Amino acid sequence: MSAELETFLLHLADAPAVLVTVEQTRGSVPREEGAWMAVFADATRGEVGTIGGGHLEWKATHQAREALLRWAVQPHEARQDWQERVTLGPSLGQCCGGSLVLRFGPVNALHINELRVRLRPAHTPLALFGGGHVGRAIVQALEPLPFAVTWIDSRDGVFPSSLPARVQTEHSDPVQAAVRDVPAGACVLIMSFSHAEDLDVVAACLQRQRERGDLGFIGLIGSRTKWATFRHRLTERGFTAADLERVTCPIGLPGIESKVPAVIAASVVAQLLLVVDAHATTLKTA
Asked: Which of the residues 67, 133, 173, 235 could staple to 261 if both were Cys, CB 3.0 to 4.6 A apart?
């Protein structure tokens, strides 16, 4: 569960709210369908989440809070969902040009279990091989993002004692044995302490792709020289040029050359987000 959702449900246990959800979109809009914001009547709880900011969000917050205050004065008034269709033009001071439909829904403590399921964000599985400095930086960068991480290493005692909520660690020796249990659709990042281990993990991923074709991304840390060596050795193991095209090496966005772990992590995570977004777009248009 995301930190925003946790905060919302915690506040909802004590006070009612209006849940504002982006239900439909057309054209250029600040948030996608399913984006939500919870509005509470009092300023101490305020708003949790966002539907895109700006005057759109300000107006939606005002409408939701007006309803909450009215219901507080008239507790027997029927409380029903309502919709607002909004065009993002000059009148809102937002010239995106698109339009959207917002749904406003009264919610209270009785809705907590339902909302916990309905608003739970989808998390892309990610297998991260390697507990070194870059691996740690990537885990930190992924913490607020919609990924469920399995962090894998063959060494004992390499993982920090405190981990983000959506990170599980796994000791695997040989390390490549863990590839068979990676969830379908997962992204895989390979950055172990050993080039020999990296090679074995890449080979295991390619073999799985041959058999199941269900990994979303295979990324290997390293230089073009490292990948040239790996290509030669993987070819000797019987992998074809088409197999090898499934591996991205070096990982990270082109043009970012820094070797600082935090910078590498930012570049790699941005690349992962592009991969996940492209996959989602493909599914949506299929």
From this structure: 133
